[in-house]
Design goal:
The chain is built from 3 helices and 2 strands. The chain is α+β, with helices and mostly antiparallel strands and about 80 residues long. The chain has a domain of about 50 residues. A two-stranded antiparallel ribbon has the order 1-2. The longest helix has 10 residues. The protein is globular, with a radius of gyration of 15 Å.
């Protein structure tokens, strides 16, 4: 089970303290849907505001992974459907 954690302030979870510091500005997380993109070596590449959709984040993945965008899921080769 998951429990509520703090993401800002003195009681902030170590993961979120690290994410904010690695992103560069250390600014507080503004809302619970703020997102961080972390590369395969553990570097925080980008921070997204809460209103950023997962689809918008996904647009940054091919460049990060060094792969051309295909618009298809590798596992089942079905076209990605907008939600």
């Amino acid at each position: 089970m998951f429990s509520k954690i703090e993401v800002n302030g003195d009681g902030a979870c170590d993961l979120y303290t690290w994410l904010k510091a690695e992103q560069g500005d250390g600014a507080d997380i503004t809302w619970n849907f703020e997102k961080f993109l972390v590369d395969r070596t553990g570097h925080v590449v980008k921070r997204y505001p809460p209103q950023t959709t997962p689809e918008k984040v996904a647009e940054d993945l091919p460049a990060l992974l060094g792969e051309p965008p295909t618009g298809r899921r590798p596992a089942d080769d079905k076209p990605l459907a907008p939600r």
